Amino acid sequence: MFYQPKDGHGLPHNPFKAIVSPRPIAWISTLDKNGRANLAPYSFFNAMADSPPMVVFGSTGTKPDQPQYKDTMANIRETGEFVVNIVSYALKDAMNITSGNLPADVDEFAAAGLEKADSQVVQPPRVAAAPAALECKLFKFVDLIAENSAMVIGEVVGIHMADSSIVNGMFDITTYQPLARLGYKDYARVTDVFPLERPEQE
Q1: Between the CA of residue 68 and those of 58, 84, 160, 180, 201, what are the distances in Å?
Q2: CATH 2.30.110.10 for domain 13-189
């Protein structure tokens, strides 16, 4: 099968997200200009560089109580700061609650029963129970082709890791089983890992 997105796929559901999977989930916490907290998951997300470390994520759509974009993007444009919280399997239900289209003045931390923890470099709080969190400052905000769609590139300026996940000097993701987004309504969790040695360069 081949299709051009502009012509449609002819299937019952769009397969694009199922093809590009699994995708890590950025559970992003922000503050608005009045200091109100927001927390929402984004699966158009990944790391882009490591020196300095940088991340990128995208958002599509808008909300009735925002003139453009969603709360996360509006807050980042206003403050230039955000935190990427990593979602463990144990936090899947709380993460799902925060994916709801709640009003801008509702604190998703409270709605999902999550404890906040202070960040060290940026102002937005992080999810206390998250196995890792990346404090970020905005590097670039890019509008995309679709209306109300945008991409954020952020520089990671602080990194939190759970001590319980550091095993033999390495960050062991199997200790918390990170959640990944697939297509449709599907998710996966990482339970097994294996190494591959890269070919030697001549």
Answers
A1: 14, 22, 31, 27, 48
A2: yes
Domain ranges of the chain: 13-189
Q: Average pLDDT for consecutive 10-residue bins of the chain (202 residues)?
A: 96 96 98 96 97 96 83 96 98 97 91 98 98 98 93 98 98 98 97 92 64
